[in-house]
Specification:
Blueprint (H helix, E strand, L loop, with lengths): L8 E3 L8 E6 L2 E13 L6 H18 L3 E11 L6 H18 L2 E9 L4 E11 L14 E4 L5 H10 L12 H11 L4 H9 L4 E4 L4 H13 L2 E4 L10 H6 L5 H10 L3 E2 L5 H7 L8 E5 L1 H13 L5 E7 L10 E3 L1
Parallel strand pairs: 4-5, 9-13, 10-13
Antiparallel strand pairs: 1-2, 2-3, 3-6, 4-6, 7-11, 7-12, 8-11, 9-12
Protein backbone atom coordinates (compact mmCIF):
# COMPACT_ATOMS: atom_id res chain seq x y z
CA UNK A 1 0.00 0.00 0.00
CA UNK A 2 1.15 3.57 -0.57
CA UNK A 3 2.36 4.97 2.74
CA UNK A 4 0.70 8.26 3.58
CA UNK A 5 1.42 10.72 6.36
CA UNK A 6 -0.73 13.41 7.93
CA UNK A 7 -0.23 15.61 10.94
CA UNK A 8 -3.27 14.08 12.63
CA UNK A 9 -2.56 10.45 11.67
CA UNK A 10 -0.99 8.97 14.81
CA UNK A 11 -0.93 5.35 13.57
CA UNK A 12 -1.13 4.54 9.86
CA UNK A 13 0.22 1.78 7.66
CA UNK A 14 3.91 2.09 8.47
CA UNK A 15 4.07 -0.68 11.11
CA UNK A 16 1.13 -2.79 9.95
CA UNK A 17 -0.75 -2.11 13.18
CA UNK A 18 -4.25 -3.34 13.98
CA UNK A 19 -6.14 -0.09 13.36
CA UNK A 20 -5.69 3.51 12.28
CA UNK A 21 -5.47 6.15 15.01
CA UNK A 22 -6.44 9.76 14.29
CA UNK A 23 -6.06 12.92 16.38
CA UNK A 24 -9.48 14.57 16.55
CA UNK A 25 -8.20 17.99 17.55
CA UNK A 26 -4.79 19.23 16.34
CA UNK A 27 -4.45 21.24 19.55
CA UNK A 28 -5.43 18.39 21.88
CA UNK A 29 -3.58 15.05 21.99
CA UNK A 30 -5.90 13.49 24.56
CA UNK A 31 -8.82 12.52 22.28
CA UNK A 32 -7.94 9.99 19.60
CA UNK A 33 -10.17 8.20 17.12
CA UNK A 34 -9.61 4.53 16.20
CA UNK A 35 -10.86 3.10 12.91
CA UNK A 36 -10.78 -0.47 11.60
CA UNK A 37 -12.64 -2.89 9.33
CA UNK A 38 -12.73 -6.67 8.97
CA UNK A 39 -14.96 -9.23 7.26
CA UNK A 40 -14.74 -12.84 6.07
CA UNK A 41 -16.62 -15.86 4.74
CA UNK A 42 -18.44 -18.21 7.16
CA UNK A 43 -16.29 -20.20 9.60
CA UNK A 44 -19.29 -22.10 11.01
CA UNK A 45 -22.59 -23.25 9.49
CA UNK A 46 -24.92 -21.47 11.91
CA UNK A 47 -25.57 -17.95 10.52
CA UNK A 48 -26.26 -16.32 13.89
CA UNK A 49 -23.03 -17.70 15.37
CA UNK A 50 -21.06 -16.63 12.30
CA UNK A 51 -22.43 -13.09 12.61
CA UNK A 52 -21.47 -12.90 16.25
CA UNK A 53 -17.97 -14.25 15.57
CA UNK A 54 -17.41 -11.81 12.69
CA UNK A 55 -18.44 -8.78 14.75
CA UNK A 56 -16.36 -9.94 17.72
CA UNK A 57 -13.40 -10.36 15.42
CA UNK A 58 -13.84 -6.91 13.85
CA UNK A 59 -14.00 -5.03 17.14
CA UNK A 60 -10.91 -6.83 18.43
CA UNK A 61 -8.67 -4.36 16.60
CA UNK A 62 -10.09 -1.51 18.67
CA UNK A 63 -9.41 -3.39 21.90
CA UNK A 64 -5.90 -4.26 20.69
CA UNK A 65 -5.21 -0.51 20.43
CA UNK A 66 -6.45 0.07 23.99
CA UNK A 67 -9.64 1.75 22.81
CA UNK A 68 -13.39 1.66 23.38
CA UNK A 69 -15.71 0.99 20.42
CA UNK A 70 -18.35 3.62 19.68
CA UNK A 71 -20.25 2.42 16.59
CA UNK A 72 -19.98 0.04 13.68
CA UNK A 73 -21.18 -0.26 10.09
CA UNK A 74 -22.17 -3.66 8.73
CA UNK A 75 -20.26 -4.84 5.64
CA UNK A 76 -22.08 -7.54 3.65
CA UNK A 77 -21.76 -9.43 0.38
CA UNK A 78 -24.62 -11.85 -0.19
CA UNK A 79 -25.45 -14.29 -3.04
CA UNK A 80 -29.17 -13.59 -2.89
CA UNK A 81 -29.93 -16.01 -5.75
CA UNK A 82 -28.46 -18.86 -3.66
CA UNK A 83 -29.10 -17.92 -0.01
CA UNK A 84 -32.27 -16.42 1.44
CA UNK A 85 -32.35 -12.99 3.02
CA UNK A 86 -33.79 -14.64 6.12
CA UNK A 87 -30.36 -16.20 6.66
CA UNK A 88 -28.76 -12.77 6.29
CA UNK A 89 -31.13 -11.46 8.96
CA UNK A 90 -29.79 -14.12 11.32
CA UNK A 91 -26.20 -13.13 10.51
CA UNK A 92 -26.95 -9.48 11.28
CA UNK A 93 -28.75 -10.46 14.47
CA UNK A 94 -25.62 -12.29 15.62
CA UNK A 95 -23.52 -9.21 14.94
CA UNK A 96 -26.01 -7.12 16.90
CA UNK A 97 -25.64 -9.43 19.92
CA UNK A 98 -21.88 -8.87 19.93
CA UNK A 99 -22.37 -5.10 19.62
CA UNK A 100 -24.84 -5.05 22.49
CA UNK A 101 -22.44 -7.01 24.69
CA UNK A 102 -19.55 -4.71 23.82
CA UNK A 103 -21.56 -1.50 24.10
CA UNK A 104 -21.16 -0.19 20.55
CA UNK A 105 -24.01 0.85 18.26
CA UNK A 106 -24.58 -0.47 14.74
CA UNK A 107 -25.31 2.69 12.82
CA UNK A 108 -25.87 1.32 9.32
CA UNK A 109 -23.75 -0.36 6.69
CA UNK A 110 -23.55 -1.44 3.08
CA UNK A 111 -24.56 -4.60 1.21
CA UNK A 112 -23.76 -5.90 -2.25
CA UNK A 113 -24.77 -8.95 -4.25
CA UNK A 114 -21.72 -11.23 -4.31
CA UNK A 115 -20.79 -14.76 -5.37
CA UNK A 116 -20.24 -15.90 -1.77
CA UNK A 117 -21.35 -14.62 1.64
CA UNK A 118 -19.10 -12.14 3.45
CA UNK A 119 -19.82 -10.36 6.70
CA UNK A 120 -18.00 -8.08 9.09
CA UNK A 121 -18.00 -4.52 10.35
CA UNK A 122 -16.14 -1.24 10.03
CA UNK A 123 -15.81 0.02 13.60
CA UNK A 124 -14.95 3.41 15.04
CA UNK A 125 -13.60 3.68 18.56
CA UNK A 126 -12.00 6.20 20.86
CA UNK A 127 -9.15 6.33 23.36
CA UNK A 128 -7.04 8.73 25.36
CA UNK A 129 -3.47 9.24 24.15
CA UNK A 130 -2.14 7.74 27.40
CA UNK A 131 -4.06 4.51 26.73
CA UNK A 132 -3.12 3.86 23.12
CA UNK A 133 -1.39 0.51 22.61
CA UNK A 134 0.54 -0.06 19.39
CA UNK A 135 2.62 -2.92 18.08
CA UNK A 136 5.76 -0.75 18.20
CA UNK A 137 5.96 -0.19 21.96
CA UNK A 138 7.55 -3.47 23.04
CA UNK A 139 10.70 -3.33 25.18
CA UNK A 140 13.39 -5.88 26.09
CA UNK A 141 12.76 -7.84 29.33
CA UNK A 142 8.97 -7.53 29.06
CA UNK A 143 6.81 -10.64 29.36
CA UNK A 144 4.39 -11.73 26.63
CA UNK A 145 0.81 -12.48 27.70
CA UNK A 146 -1.59 -14.39 25.42
CA UNK A 147 -5.26 -14.15 26.44
CA UNK A 148 -6.88 -16.94 24.36
CA UNK A 149 -5.83 -20.46 23.31
CA UNK A 150 -4.75 -21.30 19.77
CA UNK A 151 -6.46 -23.73 17.42
CA UNK A 152 -9.50 -22.05 15.87
CA UNK A 153 -8.04 -22.43 12.38
CA UNK A 154 -7.72 -26.17 12.85
CA UNK A 155 -11.26 -26.46 14.20
CA UNK A 156 -12.77 -24.37 11.38
CA UNK A 157 -10.98 -26.51 8.79
CA UNK A 158 -12.17 -29.73 10.45
CA UNK A 159 -15.77 -28.44 10.43
CA UNK A 160 -15.57 -27.73 6.69
CA UNK A 161 -14.23 -31.21 5.92
CA UNK A 162 -16.67 -33.20 8.07
CA UNK A 163 -20.44 -33.77 7.90
CA UNK A 164 -22.67 -31.45 10.00
CA UNK A 165 -23.42 -34.16 12.56
CA UNK A 166 -19.73 -34.16 13.59
CA UNK A 167 -20.32 -31.10 15.80
CA UNK A 168 -23.53 -32.41 17.37
CA UNK A 169 -23.46 -33.69 20.99
CA UNK A 170 -21.48 -36.90 21.03
CA UNK A 171 -19.90 -36.15 17.63
CA UNK A 172 -16.12 -36.28 17.15
CA UNK A 173 -15.83 -32.49 16.86
CA UNK A 174 -18.41 -31.51 19.49
CA UNK A 175 -15.97 -30.58 22.27
CA UNK A 176 -13.58 -28.74 19.96
CA UNK A 177 -16.43 -26.88 18.25
CA UNK A 178 -17.94 -25.74 21.55
CA UNK A 179 -14.57 -24.57 22.85
CA UNK A 180 -13.77 -22.74 19.62
CA UNK A 181 -17.12 -20.94 19.45
CA UNK A 182 -16.79 -19.94 23.11
CA UNK A 183 -13.44 -18.29 22.40
CA UNK A 184 -14.35 -16.78 19.01
CA UNK A 185 -17.41 -15.07 20.53
CA UNK A 186 -15.51 -13.87 23.61
CA UNK A 187 -14.87 -10.14 23.34
CA UNK A 188 -11.33 -8.93 24.04
CA UNK A 189 -12.84 -6.09 26.06
CA UNK A 190 -11.80 -7.46 29.44
CA UNK A 191 -8.41 -8.56 28.14
CA UNK A 192 -7.74 -5.00 26.96
CA UNK A 193 -8.75 -3.57 30.34
CA UNK A 194 -6.40 -5.99 32.10
CA UNK A 195 -3.58 -5.11 29.69
CA UNK A 196 -3.99 -1.41 30.39
CA UNK A 197 -4.13 -2.02 34.15
CA UNK A 198 -0.91 -4.04 33.84
CA UNK A 199 0.87 -1.10 32.24
CA UNK A 200 1.21 -2.78 28.85
CA UNK A 201 3.23 -0.78 26.33
CA UNK A 202 2.42 -2.84 23.22
CA UNK A 203 -0.33 -5.17 22.05
CA UNK A 204 -1.81 -6.85 19.02
CA UNK A 205 -4.60 -9.34 18.47
CA UNK A 206 -3.89 -12.83 17.13
CA UNK A 207 -5.91 -13.43 13.98
CA UNK A 208 -5.12 -14.58 10.44
CA UNK A 209 -1.32 -14.44 10.64
CA UNK A 210 -1.20 -16.74 13.67
CA UNK A 211 0.82 -16.21 16.85
CA UNK A 212 4.14 -16.34 15.00
CA UNK A 213 3.08 -13.88 12.32
CA UNK A 214 1.60 -11.29 14.65
CA UNK A 215 4.46 -11.62 17.16
CA UNK A 216 7.00 -11.18 14.38
CA UNK A 217 5.24 -8.02 13.25
CA UNK A 218 5.25 -6.68 16.83
CA UNK A 219 8.91 -7.55 17.31
CA UNK A 220 9.85 -5.95 14.01
CA UNK A 221 7.92 -2.76 14.78
CA UNK A 222 9.47 -2.61 18.26
CA UNK A 223 13.05 -3.42 17.09
CA UNK A 224 13.31 -6.35 19.49
CA UNK A 225 13.44 -10.14 19.32
CA UNK A 226 11.17 -12.55 21.15
CA UNK A 227 11.41 -15.84 23.00
CA UNK A 228 8.42 -18.19 22.92
CA UNK A 229 8.06 -20.87 25.58
CA UNK A 230 6.14 -23.25 23.35
CA UNK A 231 4.93 -25.59 26.09
CA UNK A 232 3.25 -22.67 27.87
CA UNK A 233 1.12 -21.66 24.88
CA UNK A 234 -2.53 -22.67 25.55
CA UNK A 235 -4.47 -24.59 22.90
CA UNK A 236 -8.13 -25.51 22.40
CA UNK A 237 -9.49 -28.88 23.42
CA UNK A 238 -8.71 -31.40 20.68
CA UNK A 239 -6.57 -29.00 18.65
CA UNK A 240 -3.48 -31.21 18.69
CA UNK A 241 -5.50 -34.22 17.55
CA UNK A 242 -6.96 -32.22 14.66
CA UNK A 243 -3.48 -31.11 13.65
CA UNK A 244 -2.27 -34.72 13.65
CA UNK A 245 -5.28 -35.69 11.51
CA UNK A 246 -4.24 -33.13 8.89
CA UNK A 247 -6.88 -30.41 9.36
CA UNK A 248 -4.36 -27.62 8.79
CA UNK A 249 -5.68 -24.56 6.91
CA UNK A 250 -3.73 -23.29 3.94
CA UNK A 251 -3.27 -19.95 5.65
CA UNK A 252 -1.33 -21.59 8.49
CA UNK A 253 1.16 -23.09 6.03
CA UNK A 254 1.64 -19.69 4.40
CA UNK A 255 2.10 -18.08 7.81
CA UNK A 256 4.85 -20.52 8.70
CA UNK A 257 6.60 -20.09 5.36
CA UNK A 258 6.61 -16.32 5.86
CA UNK A 259 8.16 -16.34 9.35
CA UNK A 260 10.43 -19.38 9.00
CA UNK A 261 13.52 -17.28 8.02
CA UNK A 262 13.16 -15.44 11.34
CA UNK A 263 12.80 -18.53 13.56
CA UNK A 264 15.61 -19.85 15.73
CA UNK A 265 15.36 -23.08 17.69
CA UNK A 266 17.80 -25.71 18.90
CA UNK A 267 15.42 -28.47 17.81
CA UNK A 268 12.67 -27.16 15.56
CA UNK A 269 9.50 -29.20 15.99
CA UNK A 270 7.41 -28.87 12.83
CA UNK A 271 4.32 -29.97 14.70
CA UNK A 272 4.75 -27.19 17.27
CA UNK A 273 5.59 -24.61 14.61
CA UNK A 274 2.39 -25.48 12.74
CA UNK A 275 0.32 -24.90 15.88
CA UNK A 276 2.07 -21.59 16.59
CA UNK A 277 1.36 -20.50 12.99
CA UNK A 278 -2.31 -21.60 13.03
CA UNK A 279 -4.44 -18.92 11.37
CA UNK A 280 -6.83 -17.71 14.05
CA UNK A 281 -10.31 -16.21 13.82
CA UNK A 282 -11.24 -13.78 16.61
CA UNK A 283 -8.19 -14.77 18.64
CA UNK A 284 -6.92 -13.27 21.86
CA UNK A 285 -4.69 -10.32 22.61
CA UNK A 286 -0.94 -10.58 22.87
CA UNK A 287 0.44 -7.83 25.08
CA UNK A 288 3.77 -6.88 26.66
CA UNK A 289 4.33 -5.70 30.22
CA UNK A 290 6.67 -6.28 33.15
CA UNK A 291 6.99 -9.91 34.33
CA UNK A 292 5.38 -9.17 37.70
CA UNK A 293 2.45 -7.37 36.09
CA UNK A 294 2.09 -10.21 33.56
CA UNK A 295 1.75 -12.81 36.32
CA UNK A 296 -0.95 -10.73 38.00
CA UNK A 297 -2.73 -10.08 34.71
CA UNK A 298 -2.88 -13.79 33.89
CA UNK A 299 -4.25 -14.58 37.34
CA UNK A 300 -6.95 -11.93 36.93
CA UNK A 301 -7.95 -13.20 33.49
CA UNK A 302 -7.99 -16.83 34.56
CA UNK A 303 -10.23 -15.93 37.50
CA UNK A 304 -12.72 -14.55 34.95
CA UNK A 305 -12.66 -17.67 32.79
CA UNK A 306 -10.01 -16.68 30.25
CA UNK A 307 -7.43 -19.26 29.18
CA UNK A 308 -4.54 -16.81 29.48
CA UNK A 309 -0.84 -17.50 29.95
CA UNK A 310 2.60 -15.92 29.96
CA UNK A 311 4.04 -17.39 26.75
CA UNK A 312 7.44 -15.73 26.47
CA UNK A 313 9.38 -12.50 26.67
CA UNK A 314 10.94 -9.80 24.55
CA UNK A 315 14.72 -9.52 24.38
CA UNK A 316 17.27 -7.22 22.82
CA UNK A 317 18.43 -8.48 19.42
CA UNK A 318 21.86 -10.11 19.41
CA UNK A 319 24.63 -8.13 17.67
CA UNK A 320 25.02 -10.74 14.93
CA UNK A 321 21.29 -11.11 14.26
CA UNK A 322 18.62 -8.81 12.98
CA UNK A 323 15.78 -7.75 15.24
CA UNK A 324 12.48 -9.60 15.07
CA UNK A 325 14.14 -12.97 15.58
CA UNK A 326 11.74 -15.52 17.08
CA UNK A 327 13.48 -17.93 19.44
CA UNK A 328 11.35 -20.97 20.25
CA UNK A 329 12.15 -23.21 23.19
Amino acid sequence: MPSQTHNNLIVGTQTGDDAAVWRLDPTDDTRLLISTADFFTPVVDDPHTWGRIAATNAVSDVYAMGGRPLFGLNLVAWPQDKLSLDLLSEVLAGGAIAAEEGGWAIAGGHTIDGPEPLYGQAITGIANRSQILTNSGGEPSQALVLTKPLGTGLVATAIKRNPPEAIEPGGPLAASYTAAVTEMTRLNQQAAAVALAAGATAATDITGFGLLGHLHRLAEASSVSAVIHSTQVPTLAGAWELLDEGFVPGGSARNLAHVRPHISSSAIDERMLTMLADAQTSGGLLFCCSPAAATEAVANLQAEGHTAAVVGELIAPSPEAHSAQLIID
